[in-house]
Amino acid sequence: MSSLIDLVNLSLSMIGESPINNFDDGTTKSDICRTNTPLVLQAMLSEHRWNFNRERVLLAADATAPAFGFAYQYTLPGDCLRVWGIGDDGEGGPITSLKWKREGGKILTNEAGPLPVHYNAYNELPSTWSGTFMMGVANMLAGVFAGAIASDAKLALSKQQEALTIWLPNARGNNGQEGSQEIIQSDDLLVVRDG
Fold it and tell me: Model's pTM, two decimal places?
């Protein structure tokens, strides 16, 4: 699947609808597709740490500090959907103990720059997604289109449930297997037991 139009047409075929040529062909169907596709995609790209839309960036501090509460603020990239963490733990991950907050398009923190930021980016290239995520998006869009285009609430619910109960859980599982396993160690239980 190379484009969003291909994905949208797959979704339309799932509910028995004919394809569209592009998002601006002047039909009600293409208007519905153009309006809803980016909204659904943004929600689904934000809901998990997908490997295919994960980005890392070093940000320079803004010239102006926040009014109070933090020493520095950093402007996030325009494609940032969700920030997962800041800092570099030496193994490519964020430092969980750093204090920070996202406010609008900024990260506020007491950490001086350049600031390593881990985030999910908006990625509308289906050719870079996993197959299971692609099918999750296609089914979720089919659900939206079934309601908005075909006026079939039962089919809409069925397609959205398929996305949420079959495709997205499989996509999350596959995503978690793309890299070395994180080993979480803690002596907290030993301290409590011996304490």
Answer: 0.82
